[in-house]
């Protein structure tokens, strides 16, 4: 969590971290800016000191809402720097960074560069910075990075927001269930009052509006029917009409409007009725979900134990898994879950290949077993989001029913 | 445009470009993938050959919609690589990249790395790639990059989409104008039927829904009233009620739902009536807008000539500019315009400091003069988007009125 950052910096012997990346959405910059991502600008955090924001003069009014110390380009006489660099913005940036390092009195040593942005720019900028300021070593990081480690646990303020987003998302699921259920069928097709098919596009439009009404935004939901649902990340075809008796994978992962905390939930629905084979596979997925939750014991437990429990069960039931058949495209083809936060995918990873990841108090994670047989028209996934609370208990924060069959109660 | 890419690669002596960046929205990846951005994956483009997509097995169904050649991790035996790397995903990635370079038979030499993603990862990845594959030089780029150059001109397919987005955005402006106009006033405050204030939050909610209805999405519009509008990028305060006679800067820059082409337009509105001083400054901004458009002559003209014409006019009228007072926070504080496309800000830059930028056929640009005096409660900006068509003509594609006063025709 945020309060860990100085310790995580010290462990890496970083004198400072600088978050850059221009106007791209930047979760690390948002994290250090108390939840507000300025469109552009740098965050500079010296070891042991509070982060500061450096922005263009046009951003100052928004930047001050972060509560951070805000400096503008004018505080570094950027206009003069740019003039001296004969209008070469790249050359000016290198000088500007030097002035920043000087102003914050960053001691010689390692400086960690983090953030989301243009890869091609940072690759060259690091070389130029290293050449210009040899007293510093400018470093990045792969693997379990500083901010991966910080993001792994959420503090009380974050959990409060995360629970709000969870409740709103569940409300939208309920509204979507009711919306679809209000229709009727014509043969095997779900139809609207005018007799035309209710399409996946119609449902997605409904969901996006329902999300907006509670200040959430869609980030490309999955609503995939039949064969499409058999490919875990297929989005579904907007023009397709909803059919009775076909499994639909509905994976909804909205976030706070304008960027912020995500929620992640999946349900599999069969409209009207479920064929026996579909019901059987669904029951297997639901049993896997139960096994996953029951396999949780306590903080400190390696996350891979949960995935292994699920894989063992699926394999016993005759389904291939990524352990029994690495690279399989049918059966159980993905990991069991992941951390969530300002990013939709964070650590910990709940995978049989995750060697370092353990459950911790303050985790916000998904549990999402699934089975996929696209050529049989079958894809199934059931997912709740959980937190591990201050007592070390694994608690679902997705209070929405897990019925497979969504009955139509529309006009007869 | 897309057809220039091989030439731009040859100019830089690049044997290949690789677009990486994980699941972050990635406009370069989208551009090379015919407008569809897969959530994750690499695009590899060898000099003289069509781009290819490499994705995880879960993404294959979406990836094939791009029309590109699609390979999956399985084609490179990634599961075995990961096992050999003892589950170390970072080490596995370096080996995986080597297999890709081998499979595409990329000749020794320079490889350009581009895209949007985690800066900290690419900084270290480049070092590891360089150490492992010394026959290649892995390079980034700053300044006017390969894709900046490509994006500068749009082809006919892109212009068609850009015009559609422009029309939809103008329709939403009209709907917003009508929505606000349908209200009435109580004293100096615009009120709803129940007598409560119509707030900026209400207007933004209306706009977001109206955008969704035409398959566009807001990307953090500006609707800033009075003093707030005097800070060019202040978003406005959602809780504030709309007031009569105060200038409101409404800068709307939506894009196609899920990512895609932007439109960029700004209007300044005064509800009910405009005080004389506000009208006078607005007339000055409108005259600057006309001067800007009239200063355009032909393709090949340096863009800075347009900004210089506007600055000269503003300075003659007694307003400080970034040329007369570098770093000024009042008067005319920003550049005149910029390219637009899959990114909201692209080249060319229309700035007095832009030394290389010239107007070209196929440009999609904004022209947006403004004046800002926050302590006087004044911010003004008027912006249309333009294309430079196949005849070299500068054509506005924002067909929406530029009236300052938005009259209320609501309940009496």
Report on this model:
The structure is a homodimer of 412-residue chains. By secondary structure, chain A is α+β, with helices and mostly antiparallel strands. Chain A has two domains: 2-150, Creatine Amidinohydrolase, Chain A, domain 1; 152-406, Alpha-Beta Complex (Creatine Amidinohydrolase). Chain A has eleven helices and 22 strands. A six-stranded mixed sheet of chain A has the order 4-3-2-1-5-7, sandwiched between helices. A four-stranded mixed sheet of chain A has the order 11-12-14-22. In chain A, strands 17-20-21 form a three-stranded antiparallel sheet. In chain A, strand 3 (52-55), helix 3 and strand 4 form a beta-alpha-beta unit. In chain A, helix 8 (156-181) crosses helix 9 (200-213). The radius of gyration of chain A is 25 Å and the shape is elongated. Chains A and B meet through helix 3, helix 4, strand 5, strand 6 and helix 6 of A and helix 3, helix 4, strand 5, strand 6 and helix 6 of B. Strand 6 of chain A pairs antiparallel with strand 6 (116-118) of chain B.
């Amino acid at each position: 969590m945020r309060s860990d950052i100085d310790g995580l910096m010290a462990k890496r012997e970083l004198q400072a971290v600088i978050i850059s990346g221009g106007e791209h959405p930047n979760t690390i910059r948002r994290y250090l800016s108390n939840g507000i991502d300025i469109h552009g600008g740098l965050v500079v955090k010296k070891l042991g000191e509070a982060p500061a924001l450096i922005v263009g003069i046009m951003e100052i009014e928004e930047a001050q809402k972060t509560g951070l110390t805000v400096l503008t380009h004018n505080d570094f006489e950027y206009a003069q720097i740019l003039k001296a660099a004969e209008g070469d913005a790249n050359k000016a940036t290198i000088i500007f960074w030097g002035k920043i390092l000087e102003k914050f009195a960053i001691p010689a040593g390692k400086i960690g560069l983090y953030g989301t942005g243009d890869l091609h720019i940072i690759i060259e900028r690091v070389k130029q910075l290293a050449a210009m300021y040899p007293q510093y070593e400018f470093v990045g990081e792969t693997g379990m990075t500083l901010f991966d480690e910080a993001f792994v646990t959420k503090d009380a303020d974050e959990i409060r927001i995360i629970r709000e987003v969870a409740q709103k998302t569940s409300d939208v699921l309920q509204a979507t269930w009711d919306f679809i259920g209000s229709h009727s069928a014509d043969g095997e097709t779900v139809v609207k009052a005018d007799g035309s098919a209710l399409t996946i596009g119609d449902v997605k439009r409904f969901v996006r509006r329902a999300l907006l009404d509670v200040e959430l935004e869609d980030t490309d939901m999955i609503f995939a029917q039949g064969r499409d649902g058999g490919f875990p990340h297929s989005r579904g075809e907007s023009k397709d009409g909803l059919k009775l008796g076909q499994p639909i994978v509905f994976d909804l992962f909205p976030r706070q409007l304008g960027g912020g905390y995500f929620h992640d939930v999946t349900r599999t629905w069969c409209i009207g009725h479920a064929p026996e084979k579909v019901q059987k596979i669904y029951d297997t997925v639901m049993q896997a979900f139960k096994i996953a939750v029951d396999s949780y014991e306590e903080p400190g437990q390696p996350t891979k134990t949960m995935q292994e429990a699920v894989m063992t069960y699926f394999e016993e039931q005759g389904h291939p898994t990524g352990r029994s058949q690495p690279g399989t495209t049918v059966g159980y083809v993905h990991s069991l879950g992941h951390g969530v936060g300002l990013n939709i995918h964070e650590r910990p990873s709940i995978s049989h290949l995750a060697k370092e990841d353990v459950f911790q108090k303050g985790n916000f994670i998904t549990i999402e077993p699934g089975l996929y047989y696209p050529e049989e028209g079958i894809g199934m996934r059931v997912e709740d989001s959980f937190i591990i609370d201050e007592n070390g208990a694994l608690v679902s924060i997705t209070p929405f029913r897990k019925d497979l069959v969504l009955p139509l109660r529309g006009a007869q």
